[in-house]
Amino acid sequence: MSGEDWLAHDHHRFDEALARAQEAAEDGAWDEALRLLTELLEALALHMRLEDEVVYPALERETGDPEGELAGLRDEHRQLESLMEGARTVARERDIDHLLEALVPLRRTLREHARYEEEALARLGGEALRRNREAVLAALAALERDARPPGGAHASGRGL
């Protein structure tokens, strides 16, 4: 989070993590697939929480969200959470065909959301977020630190 890309989202990492979970399931490594889906769900949940609780409010203070784009992005976050939980539930059934069916809308929604969010953040907030960079970074760091599970493991998903 340094330089000009301090707020860059690595959405592609979520898609790559989803592909690894799918590969594990296709190989019959269901415990690994479930572990990967659980890690992805936790990382994605934190990612969305950082946006919902820090980034979007910072933009709303600056822009007021006149077109309702941030509200729409929040709604998409809830949809993604539901799709992720559904995929994890299906993985527990160890039915590859059912899992592959569940991953189609999840993957599509994840990609569409990432594209829309990146466009909306660029349109709404590039300058507003840069003006408030230090405050936003401090709030992001505090939330990420508070979200860390006991034992010091990092829950941000940046390793995904």
Overview of this protein structure:
The structure is a single chain. By secondary structure, the chain is mainly alpha-helical. It has one domain (9-146). Helix content is 79%, strand content 0%. It has five helices and no strands. The protein is elongated. It starts with 10 loop residues before the first helix and ends in a 13-residue tail after the last helix.
The gyration radius over C-alpha positions equals 17 Å
Number of DSSP helical runs: 5
- Please estimate the helix content: over 70%
Q: How would you sum up the global shape? A: elongated
The string of secondary-structure elements, in order, is HHHHH
The separation of the N and C termini measures 16 Å
Give a short account of the largest sheet: none
Portion in beta strands:
under 5%
Structural class: mainly alpha
Core attributes:
mainly alpha, disordered C terminus, single chain, elongated, 160 residues, disordered N terminus, 5 helices
Summarize this entry quickly.
This protein has helices spanning 11-26, 30-63, 69-93, 96-131, 133-147.
Which SSEs are present, and which pair or pack?
Elements: H1 11-26, H2 30-63, H3 69-93, H4 96-131, H5 133-147
Helix pairs in contact: 1-2, 1-4, 2-3, 2-4, 2-5, 3-4
